[in-house]
Give the backbone structure.
Amino acid sequence: MPQIIDGKQISAQIKDEVKEKVAALKAQGTMVCLAVIQVGADPASSVYVGNKKKACAYVGIESLSYELPEETSQEELLSLIDELNGKPEVNGILVQLPLPGHIDEDAVIRAIDPKKDVDGFHPQSVGALCIGQPGVVSCTPAGIIELLKRSGIEIAGKECVVIGRSNIVGKPMAILLLRENGTVTVTHSRTRDLKEVTRRADILVVAVGKPKMITKEYVKDGAVVIDVGIHRNENHKLCGDVDYEDVLPVCSAITPVPGGVGPMTIAMLMYNCVRSVELQ
Ligand code: NAD
């Protein structure tokens, strides 16, 4: 029977560890505070922002909420970020993505003080990750490393294949697996014979953004399969990039959707808020 990697339980454990750290900081007179900015009222973004605020309340991090109208200009947003960069009592700044089309996301990410970049998207954070210097690591891939480690899955020396090369998942995932001494291959939309590559993987991380694309034909017997995808199927139920029922019999461990990678992202955001205090 394959191991079902329980992201709910592991994320709860991490939040409890963060809660203890936040309490210890408070006892020394240091408060942890996250500013969350949302532009517009995209319903999915509102759910994510709501969950982030709930997690802050649970671990004892103060959250400041900035709900800006859809028509907010880039200058107005940049000026708010500048103001928050200058406030010593604000440790982390999170701008919920995606932003409305008239705002340049890269310019916004670059405007955040790297020491307050709790999403780990700033070029300085990404650069630090690449060369192994201290910094904040983006939440989803950092959460996947925690899932593997806390499930007793060794990464060193393993063939690790990542499907997807996005800046927020695929690329940082590959670098983190490399940092853990995996032998890493990154695949993408232009990869020739994807199945041939993925079937080499001892650890297969799937961030392809296509519902149930990965079937057992892509998976080596006994592989560990990490499914990053989140989609709603025709019955409005959540599913991942992996065809779970099909892959389950051939893998040695797998993350379910929901309850796998998803809950880890917010737990690691909480972890990153404390990390940013340490960096400051
Ligand atoms: P993205 O669309 O930015 O990237 C998808 C990647 O897949 C691209 O690099 C592309 O080259 C590659 N790709 C597309 N078609 C391919 C194919 N046929 N063969 C091989 N590679 C192919 O997506 P993303 O932002 O990295 O997100 C991936 C998935 O993870 C999405 O479903 C997203 O919703 C989900 N996600 C979940 C969390 C979480 O917290 N669990 C966080 C971020 C993203």
